[in-house]
Amino acid sequence: MAQQETRTFRKHWLYTATAPGGRRAQGVVQASDARQALEVIGREFPQLGNVRILNMASDLLPLEEAARQRFGVPPDEVTPQQWADLAASLVAEMEQQGLSLAQGLRQTAARHRPLLLGLGVALALALYRQWPWWVALLAALGMAAPFAACALAWRHVLQHRQGLCAALAGDAMGLRESLQALTDAALSRPWAPGLREMAWELAFYSACMTARYQGVAAARAELLAHPCRPEAGAGGADAASRQPLGIFEYLLPARAGDFATAAAVLEGMLAAAPDRPEWLMDLAITRERLGQFDEARRLLARVNTQELPPFIAMYEQGIRGLLALDDARHADFGQAVALLTAACRTALEWTQRNPVFWWSAISFACELSLALARNGQPQAARRALATVRRLAPQCVDARRLEIIRAEVEPALPPAPAAGAAA
Predict the structure, then answer these.
(1) Who's near 81: CB < 8 A, 6+ residues apart?
(2) Which of 254, 258, 260, 265 is deepest in the core (most CB within 10 A)?
(3) Model pLDDT, residue 103
(4) Which string of DSSP letters, residue by residue, matches 133-185?
């Protein structure tokens, strides 16, 4: 029994190394901590050199959750070959992130090419003709400044991504650390583009956690007091900008399951801008959640998704899938499965561009599990819910999640303890 408990709390570690001949190698080992992971690698793969344990904090999911998402089974059931495939894909994704920074530096060089050429000439002349030292220093600093700004901005993008990862995993401490770092950066460098917006977005996800445990009123007060909150009316005539919390005025109660309040706010915003497709979609979702199915269909009919980005069509598929799932008068569970599968697939594709879409992907996956259960596919339903089981509380309101679990989970094994995935 003691041996089994020790195995339960061992974590999976992703590593890269150099194989004989200079080839890159990567893999996954299981150990209680990073030091022990290095010992396991040295013992089992003595031919490897330059072993490095990769920090997974900036990835979207812990390694165990990445395996669940990829293969649809608990980590204990993942085969060695599957772990190897997962390691290769994760390392490739991390390298792509590094390439993105390099690409940003190249774009910076191209964008500031005349300035850099001019300063380069000045630096060369200052060194060749022995001008005062401060001339060469100013030229060198001027050339370095655009690249330093690019690297600094990329660091904050990674902080934002880490905060989103923490929010998705329910890690309140990690989320607040990223939020505080971005907030401090935004206040100390108000001229830097995008910092306030990133901090404000993380503040919303932090408020969602507050709403789950302390209520919407406390969460709303938290957002109102945040220093990066946009000033009401700053967006001019836009209906959202006139709200004290912008679009979060309705998103916050909706995330907490208060769809009546969210619908009331959206109705007021749509009265000033009746053709905003994203607001029509959001109002359709709230009406569907309130059981007002005909009104939800009427709102969907006002949206022409053929002229909009693909993710808007994804939400239309999701809402129509929910209507086929929940409206007893027109229930069609087979259609609900098809629509929610398509919506979930599109959401997963968009997560590669923006991790915010993980919330939609997981929400659709939970609804898909319910549709599969009602369609007479209990095993598929359990697999669908098992893949997002730990992340679902951050993406689906508590009452809805209770309904889904009650119909899907009777035969599921108990959820792993929090320390088991640590």
Answers:
(1) none
(2) 265
(3) 58
(4) HHHHHHHHHHHHHHHHHHHHHHHHHHHHHHHHHHHHHT-HHHHHHHHHHHHHH
Backbone phi, psi, residue 326, to 5°:
-105, -30
Report the distance separating Cα 189 and Cα 302, nearest Å: 43
Question: Which residues fall within 8 angstroms of residue 2, CB to CB, at 6 or more apart?
Answer: none
Q: What are the CB-based long-range contacts (under 8 Å, 24+) for 73-77?
A: 73/383, 73/386, 74/386, 74/416, 75/12
Q: Say which residues have a Cβ less than 8 Å from residue 245's Cβ, sequence separation at least 6.
A: 220, 223, 224, 229, 252
Predicted confidence (pLDDT) per residue in 282-334, tens digit: 999 999 999 999 999 999 998 876 666 667 788 999 999 999 999 999 999 99
Whether the pLDDT of residue 101 is over 60: the answer is: no
Q: Report the distance separating Cα 70 and Cα 93, nearest Å.
A: 14
Dist. CA 211–CA 97, nearest whole Å: 33
Angle between helices 378-387 and 357-374 (to 10 degrees): 160
C-alpha to C-alpha distance for 288 and 282, rounded to whole angstroms: 10
Burial label, 164 (beta-carbon count in 10 A; 0-12, 13-18, 19+): buried
